[in-house]
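Recall the central idea of this unit: under ordinary conditions, the amino acid sequence of a chain determines the structure it adopts. In this exercise we apply that idea directly, starting from the sequence alone.
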Amino acid sequence: MSAFSHTGNAPTNATQAKDRLYSQLSGSLSRMARAIRQTADLCEQLQVDLHAMRTFAGLDAAKFMTVAAKLNPEDTDSEPAQENSLE
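Accordingly, the structure predicted from this sequence is:
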């Protein structure tokens, strides 16, 4: 009788271990693919949010400059006279 008895097509322990490891690898790759898709979606949303923030900041700065210009009108004619009077 042989020390390696093999009965037909019965899976060996090594084959079962290989199948189990490939199954684990498949699950890990599926989870990683899902995480990558979620990351890509979040990056896309971040780009949209950053664009909205740039637009808001630009509009807010323009409003601030408009109000500041109305509250503090520049008097270019009187500035040199003031500088000369200090000398």
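The two ends are 119 Å apart (CA to CA).
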